[in-house]
Amino acid sequence: MKVAIVVQRYGADINGGAELHARYVAEHLARHVEVEVLTTCASDYITWRNERAEGQETVHGVPVRRFPVSRERNPEEFAACSARVFTRAHSVRDELAWLDAEGPTSPALIEFIRAHEQAYDFFVFFSVRYYHAYHGARAVPGKAILVPTAERDAAVGLGVFGPIFRGVRAIMYNSMEERALIQAVSNNGHVPGVVVGVGSDIPDRNEPARFRQKFDFPHRFAVYVGRIDENKGCRELFDFFENYSASLVDGLHLVLIGNPVIPVPRHPRIHHLGFVSDQDKFDAIAAAEVLVMPSYFEPVDGGTRGMGPRPSRAGQCGLRRAAGTMPAQQRGPLLREFPRVLRDAPDARRESRARRDARPQRRRYFEQHYSWPVIERRVARMFERLQQQPATHVMERIPGWWSRRRATLAGADEVVSHLPRGAAREVPAERLTEPTPRSRPARPSTSAPTPSPAVDRRGAQPRSDAGVQASSGARRPAGRDGGRRSSGSRGGQPRAETRQDRGSDARRPRQAATPPPPETESAPPAERQTGSANGERQPGSGSGDRRRRPMRGRRRPGGPR
After folding, report:
1. Helix (H) / strand (E) containing 525
2. In this model, does residue 321 exceed pLDDT 90?
3. Of 14, 78, 331, 408, which residue is most buried, by most CB within 10 angstroms?
């Protein structure tokens, strides 16, 4: 079996979240199958500038094939496109323009994937929000396995990603919350998926004293590990920590491990160590009083569960939030809460007997869920099952020229605001099999949501408001008042029959009402309730064909005097 790992950047010196995840998967998967990495020549995710040589090379024993980026990112253009699709009504064309502006735009990479589809059994695409994952999955949908790395940000609410979530061959989720988020926004329950997670290699023994001796650091400190970026919440972390340091003379220091994207403040208690080895990273975490996770969206790495200290609830008190901008009325209380949490960190660091006894249990939990042998078995088992079962769903086409330009999509911020929040419930077993056609949910219609059915007061079958409008709009009444009383009658007596009455709808014999046909997957919900997509009444479509019965004691219009 030959598998292609497709990612926006790749290299031994790139420690970004999705890029590092892709490298870990490629290196561990290469022990079981033939792996090749397809990526771009870019190193900087801000500009996507071509900084690496085009062609083939080998990174840690894994062959890598690089393709050039056709254009660098324009920050002003990308900001304008983001404001358009995130905050107001827009079109599919606007979202595709946003995708091109974000990059990395590499048509050569997509053309290679399309031309060499038969040379690979599967293509594993990382990060759905980027150019290579969207266009690559559309090029080879039957072999595309998606690792979305989706977060609760505005990008997941864009409409162009719904067909990708519903049309790829399978999806590997990083967490149950990510799966719940994607299924809620795209209704892709019919796509095979498994929560694989991210593996970690934790040393059997951590040495806090070794870290202090190597870096000559005797102070008590809190540690942050990751890319130092505003999107990771680091700017707020700096603001909160500077406010904390001003309130205490003898407080914790802050140690930063990772490559900086934004400037690190010059502060006597803030220490930036840059990129360090995994051993130094775990030693620093073991020596720290507090492990800070300031990201708005990302969960704490499962690898920390297998270590001695737990992540501090400092992230819960003020640095982590669901999404959006922090309101000004919340910022003040959080600034006051942050110093208290760090001040109480030494007390929380002192482990009770119960916590010391729970250390082996936490280590076993990590070994059962986050160790690389477990991750490798999940991925290998998924490949085997996908090879045995053919795909039964197809990728939806991009809308046509006119539909692509209609501003029918809501702002992505509004879409995300209606998605579920909080922890997701774990399912007893992962499903990798294709569901039967009966059990697979129908794809949601692109039209507006259909209102709840309204019950006919005459005791007939339930019908929707849309069906009532469609049936009433298709039937022309005999008189101005709907046929109950003729406009030309006097004293309640009907007028004489005319030629118009002989040809009118009122003179036709009534047809027996037929029950609505059973719902099928071939028609969207809106079409099944109204009878047709354009709102016109179709024979046998349900209550829309039911004629109005004349009231007793009244003559039908056009009858004899």
Report:
1. helix 525-530
2. no
3. 14
